[in-house]
Design a protein that fits this description.
2 copies of one chain form a homodimer.
Chain A: E1 7-14, E2 20-29, E3 36-45, E4 50-59, E5 81-89, E6 92-99, E7 105-115, E8 122-127, E9 131-140, E10 145-157, H1 162-179, H2 181-199, E11 201-204, H3 207-224, H4 249-261, H5 263-275, H6 277-286, H7 316-332, H8 335-356, E12 358-359, E13 365-366, H9 384-403, H10 405-410, H11 417-426, E14 432-433, E15 438-439, E16 449-450, H12 453-458, H13 470-473, E17 476-477, H14 484-490, H15 497-507, H16 519-528, H17 532-544, H18 560-574, E18 585-586, E19 596-603, E20 606-612, E21 616-623, E22 627-631, E23 634-638, E24 643-646
Helix pairs in contact in A: 3-17, 3-18, 4-5, 4-7, 4-18, 5-7, 5-8, 7-8, 7-9, 8-9, 9-11, 9-14, 14-16, 15-16, 16-17, 16-18, 17-18
Chain lengths: ~675, ~675
């Protein structure tokens, strides 16, 4: 239930002996009480008198199923937690464990409330080192129900004592017991109501996408809303994939959505990055660079990637963080954040770029030997995405320092540093293939051998990362995920319409989308270049990544960035929304099947509602001060009255692009 | 003793109690009895009557000293061998052990013969699982000696039974006991005499280099002469460095020397490669390539490199093997080898190049994303060394197939394959920087940022591989070892004199020689471009690599390729010897300090002696049929009469090149 924020299940089960029970469960992870989850579980006798026992457990160090060789799946430890303390009393039990190597301490506690007809039930509790179990039993007449309400509290710490952690978790459990089930459920709904008010997207004409986009927004919200200056991992908290690590996709796909819909959550995520700045400074020093080098994959700030060509060398994560900070400030005008969080992030990452690059004899500023978003290329010169994002980073740093000169001095910003940042930014190399009249993903890229896509299709070799060696993949034209095309989204003002159209035509047949971080971006650029049906297909793929388990690994956890990306595909794709230069603009247009698209965004404290139909778009200020917007090439102020405009239908100048054989958008959607 | 092939030591030792003994030892690893080593050990009482006990042991699984973090040092296992069998009787003991994981079985046996004045000694034997000990004791009057002659036999097998291996080693021991010490020593000298007859180099005017080059040749010979279709490892059998693995330097630095001086040993080394062809075919398939891909580092044919950007991606090892096979055939005209060994090697590696490269729109054949000899660059496009060596490989394959059409059919050589090889070879890309008028080590190389050599010198950061991250090293202009310069040696006919002079001028200031595989090549090109004093310096560095422990790691084993390289530096450098296109040519010239250089080489079954003095060179046919040679630009036939010519002094067209600060040639030689 995406409105209530609970998961409900009903099942009727017939035992081998022919007895029938109906089981209803409702469960939630609370967004208001941060350490609490709860489940209400009801068993009903259907036809005949039935004896029922409900067992409620806390279990750790369970045997895990054998893991696969897929590197994206989490590494699994045997019995990773060492039991440290156990206690039980009444229907309540508490376990404390420690991790073996890092000595992190975690505690889990449960409280179980059984309700039986006439209060007639017996219960007992057993507590062992690795598990605790409360059991309740009763006899039901047909139509009678036996109910368990179970509250669970979790806590962990790398520093606090056993006693402190035990008491914290026990206290949280006591609080939720006092609050009670009904209040917990209604608080959950109230929190989520508030989110949907500024975030809901309506899609008419495609119910599947409608549902999937809401599913995606719900999970984006759920992964972020209570992260509170901790990382938002690639899988949120939905599964063990990628070992719980956070990557660049938090800043590049999740934060743009949160910035427009739940800005406080975006701020929190960036404050987490800011809190790891000292580790990033140490990392830059270890790399013999300057400033800060944020990790490619991490839980708390240290680099956790063991394969540097597609990890550390992907320095673009630093520009992605800087870009997210610039975007957040553009959207919120949050001056405290600008000064205290954005400026240090921007200054230290700008220093990194100056140290990592050099001015060549050709007068351009070059970033050599780095890895862009496309993980099927590595250690290339002048990756356009990296270079243009670094350019934004450098210019953003120069600007923020100009706004806060006194505080900049505390970061030891030398008098000549901003000028050096501007000089590098303005001279940034952007390789272009004159012969093919197309931008190069990286220097020389378009001159490399084209991958044998037909052979890969025939050999059923996708994803290539599991079936082909990097020594072959890296040196050929084969693209895992949008790279130049991603640059054309976030740095779209650096390209002409013709550049984009030709790039889409050139790169689509090379892009295999072995990453979930691609379809949404391809949707955005397909829409911008007038290929609306293709954009619709890509939108569906991004939105259904997990509901349809398109990559066959949803069991490892949800693809949070792809789910957030479905919002991007809709709003930036068919809404044509851009925020280049801190100016919010729209070029709405709809694909054939879509009869209406509605979405709300929060811009500088105001809520703007956009409603698009095939021929018309209506902008409405839902609350807050008047805002300046662009529609197409026209700037207007949105105040009390809704503003009506014609949609901005784009005529494509290239034929509908083809994908590699077998790599067409994955969803039969219409 | 480089003539006798034994190590002699004499030491006088005074005990804390003031007793003085003189110890003489002579030891050898036999070149005639392949599994035998022996030591004669004599203790003499010097001033006073002395009681002496000699303990002679076989020991395994000893505690090893803590190893360093240097990746070039061997990994160390604790107690790697599992005892399987022990036996002792008389003064003879035998141990059999097995390795834990690979189950290789090895056996060692010793026989001890004590000789005391008047035969008056007592001896005993003890045998345990991991050691055996024979002890002999006697009382000596001043001037009397107590002597031990110890023979040790080794054997190993991955297949034979315990009994078979035990008997083999025991048999070898019985044979050498029958042969006796004196015969073993004289056989050793006879074998080495024969080697020196065709290999000795005389250097007048530089006694240090004279000694060091002989030391180098001796160890090259010793590493190779009884390898007998096993790999010649980077350290020979002199130490645990690089885990006993063989690399490309066997073919590129050791085999050119052996081909010219001990051709049968070169043939054996290539037969070893040939014996691993099936594994190389499997590897090519795993890499989704065709033909054969030989391993970067190996003991018996499997790829043992865990870091592919500087391992598998260095595909040039395949061209190096092909080149060594072509060279061996050019020098020996060994038709059986050409047909049975060279052809399969050349055909399968040619197939690899065709699969690894592609014809670009520019009409050139490109090899993208590979790693050349310089390990401070990786995954670059069109590495000139790789491309030109691949070119030789492709042309060589086309030629050998033409010589043996019937046998080629058995390798399934299709009718159009040789034409495809020639087409690729003729179109091979060789990137050139028009602005700087110099060849590029790889495409774009000369446009990258230049390394901050001054900072590295100040920080004492050499070798960089232990002090700087690859993400920084790979993307800048900093060269570990000769790469383009190596191409200019082995593929010198593909460059003009001006090309070479400008390349030396450009690349010398970028080359830090953190590899021992560089100084000898730099010597060759420095000499060719007229920088004779610099060539002399590099020669000295290559020759003294281990005698002066220039890289501070001779304890891990000798740098066999650098030692062989000192011969190359002399003969190809000051002798100006080249074998381009199967034509043997010379351009001799000497540096100031050298008054005479003499060397012998074996060319097509004949032995040619070359004697160079400052103004004159004399070619003499020592044995065999007349041969055709080139001196400078003149071709002549060398038959009965010595041929006298003027030396070929080259005038440099560029100033003496400078090295990075602190990376000048390491040896104060004059």
């Amino acid at each position: 239930d995406l409105r209530a924020g609970v998961l409900r299940r009903v099942v009727e089960w017939e035992s081998p002996a022919g007895q029938v029970v109906r089981v209803r469960s409702t469960r939630l992870v609370s967004l208001t009480q941060r350490s609490i989850m709860a489940i209400r579980y009801e068993v009903e006798a259907v036809h005949a008198p039935t004896r029922v026992v409900i067992q409620s457990e806390l279990v750790t160090n369970e045997d895990l199923p054998t893991t696969s060789k897929d590197p994206r799946v989490a590494a699994a430890l045997e019995a990773p937690l060492v039991p440290e303390y156990q206690h039980g009393s009444g229907n309540r039990a508490l376990l404390v464990h420690q991790t073996k190597a890092s000595q992190l301490r975690m505690s889990a506690a449960m409280d179980n409330e059984f309700v039986a007809p006439n209060g007639d039930f017996g219960s007992q509790l057993e507590v062992q080192q690795d598990w605790a179990r409360a059991s309740g039993g009763t006899a039901l007449e047909p139509g009678q129900r036996f109910q368990l309400t179970k509250f669970v509290a979790y806590g962990w710490s790398s520093m606090r004592s056993l006693a402190a952690l035990r008491d914290q978790v026990d206290g949280a459990l006591s609080m939720v017991v006092r609050t009670g089930w009904d209040q917990l459920v209604s608080d959950q709904r109230a929190t989520i109501d508030e989110f949907w008010q500024g975030a809901d997207v309506t899609v008419e004409g495609d119910d599947t996408v409608q549902q999937a986009v809401r599913f995606g927004l719900f999970h984006t919200m759920q992964a972020a809303l209570r992260a509170e200056q901790r990382a938002i991992p690639a899988k949120g908290l939905t599964g063990p994939g990628y070992d719980g690590h956070a990557f660049w996709d938090t800043e590049s796909f999740v934060l743009p959505v949160l910035t427009a819909t739940a800005p406080q959550a975006a701020a929190d995520a960036l404050k987490w990055r800011h809190s790891t700045l000292d580790l990033a400074r140490e990392r830059a020093e270890a790399l013999t660079l300057h400033g800060a080098a944020f990790p490619w994959r991490t839980i708390r700030g240290q680099e956790c990637s063991g394969y540097w060509p597609a990890g550390t060398a992907a320095l673009h994560v630093n520009a992605d963080i800087a870009d997210a900070a610039i975007r957040y400030v553009d959207w919120t005008a949050d001056h405290d954040f600008d000064r205290d969080i954005a400026m240090p992030l921007l200054v230290e990452t700008a220093r990194l770029w100056v140290a990592a690059g050099h001015h060549g004899d050709d007068g351009a500023f070059h970033l050599d030997g780095l890895t862009g978003p496309d993980e099927y290329s590595a250690l290339a010169d002048d990756n356009v995405y990296t270079n243009l994002m670094a350019r934004r980073n450098l210019l953003g740093a120069a600007e923020v320092v100009g706004r806060w000169p006194r505080e900049a001095a505390r970061l030891d910003v030398a008098a000549d540093e901003p000028a050096a940042w501007r000089t590098a930014a303005e001279a940034m190399a952007v390789p272009y293939d004159e012969r093919r009249q197309v931008h190069q993903q990286s220097r020389n890229f378009t001159e490399h051998q084209v991958w044998d896509f037909a052979a890969s299709a025939e050999a059923n070799a996708y994803p290539l990362l599991l079936n082909a060696p990097y020594v072959d993949i890296y040196r050929k034209q084969v693209i895992k995920q949008a790279d130049l095309i991603l640059a054309m989204h976030w740095c779209g003002d650096q390209f002409t319409f013709d550049d984009k159209a030709r790039a889409v035509a050139y790169y689509e047949p090379l892009t295999v989308r072995d990453s979930s971080l691609s379809a949404c971006t391809q949707a955005v650029l397909a829409a911008e270049t007038g290929h609306l049906e293709l954009a619709h297909d890509y939108l569906a793929e991004a939105a259904l990544m997990d509901l349809s388990d398109l990559e066959h690994n949803t069991r490892d956890g949800l693809h949070i960035a792809s789910l957030a990306g479905s919002w991007i595909a809709l709003v930036a794709g068919f809404g044509g929304m851009r925020d280049h230069g801190g100016q919010l603009s729209f070029r709405p247009q709809l694909p054939t099947a879509m009869t209406r698209l509605g979405f709300a965004i929060r811009w500088r404290g105001s809520t703007v509602q956009v409603a698009v139909t095939p021929d018309e778009v209506v902008y409405t200020l839902r609350d807050g001060d008047p805002v300046e917007l662009r529609h197409g090439d026209e700037t207007f102020t949105l105040a009390g009255e809704p503003v009506h405009r014609q949609t901005c239908r784009v005529e494509p100048i290239t034929p509908t692009p083809q994908q590699p054989p077998g790599r067409e958008p994955a969803v039969p959607r219409r």
